């Protein structure tokens, strides 16, 4: 076989070998077990949620699921014009679910996501900060499994797997649903494989991730996170999860993935390619 033929064979085989090796490595990542004597309890957890717009049906479903996990507090950071509608929405929550303190913070008429997160982080009182999107549904067992990662004193951040929920009124998967399902499956295979291979992660999901409060509650992080520029003079308002993951690991903490089935979070698939594109930009 001449050199050209060998190069062609290598070119054709490489993607298949990479896929197989990634798939195998991903299967080697074990769930972090629940501890017999947990260091942290739900009362050590602050949940931070940046939101744009008025309270939606997915948000009301999501906050009900968060409250089932009984964190110490939930901090909602919203645009100023939407405060009245959120006040009304929070008052409608069943009194049996109000053992958790719910705070509503405003940050101008059109706040950037990083500004919202920074305000929530500096206001939180918990030892563990959980950053989550406003439409993400949690299982009742999520927080115990995320807290389990912090039994290891070297862990600074932990992420969970995400499941895509389909619109049940549509018989076949839409194009955005198919895209999201495929991308999520590929993303988590790669993250799990990376975690096994070299114990690092490129990015904990912004949909739900938990961090030790000292990793984020310091002036240096808040300043660099809020004033992160690209093209020299443009404030970056995307890539917040990648920035935080990188920050945590560069300071000697480990970022890990909790792959326990009971720690999976869920989010609704986008119903249109336009909405999917806006989510990616956000």
From TrEMBL:
Keyword Protease: no
Keywords: Glycoprotein, Glycosyltransferase, Membrane, Signal, Transferase, Transmembrane, Transmembrane helix
SUPFAM superfamilies given in the database record: Nucleotide-diphospho-sugar transferases
Primary location class: membrane
Subcellular location as annotated: Membrane
PANTHER family, per the entry: EXOSTOSIN-LIKE 2, SYNTHASE CPS1, PUTATIVE (AFU_ORTHOLOGUE AFUA_7G02500)-RELATED
Protein name: Glycosyltransferase family 2 protein
The species this protein was found in: Hyaloscypha hepaticicola
């Amino acid at each position: 076989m001449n050199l050209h033929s060998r190069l062609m064979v290598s070119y054709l085989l490489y993607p298949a070998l990479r896929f197989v090796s990634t798939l195998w490595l991903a299967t080697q990542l074990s769930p972090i077990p629940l501890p017999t004597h947990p260091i942290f309890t739900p009362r050590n957890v602050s949940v931070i949620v940046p939101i744009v717009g008025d309270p939606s049906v997915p948000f009301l479903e999501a906050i009900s699921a968060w409250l089932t996990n009984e964190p110490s507090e939930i901090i909602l950071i919203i645009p100023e014009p939407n405060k009245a509608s959120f006040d009304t929405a929070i008052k409608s929550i069943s009194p049996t679910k109000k053992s958790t303190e719910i705070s509503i913070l405003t940050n101008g008429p059109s706040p950037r996501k990083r500004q919202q997160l920074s305000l929530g982080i500096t206001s939180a009182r918990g030892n563990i900060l959980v950053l989550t999107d406003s439409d993400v549904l949690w299982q009742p067992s999520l927080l115990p499994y995320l807290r389990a990662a912090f039994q290891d004193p070297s862990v600074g951040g932990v992420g969970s797997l995400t499941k895509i929920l389909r619109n049940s009124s549509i018989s076949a998967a839409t194009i955005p649903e198919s895209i999201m399902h495929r991308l999520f499956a590929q993303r988590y295979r790669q993250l799990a494989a990376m975690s096994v291979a070299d114990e690092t992660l490129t990015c904990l999901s912004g949909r739900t991730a938990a961090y030790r409060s000292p990793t984020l509650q310091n002036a240096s992080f808040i300043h660099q996170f809020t004033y992160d520029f690209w093209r020299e003079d443009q404030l970056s308002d995307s890539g917040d999860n990648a920035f935080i993951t990188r920050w945590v690991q560069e300071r000697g903490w480990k970022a890990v993935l909790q792959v326990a089935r009971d720690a999976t979070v869920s989010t609704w698939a986008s119903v249109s390619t336009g909405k999917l594109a806006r989510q990616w930009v956000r």
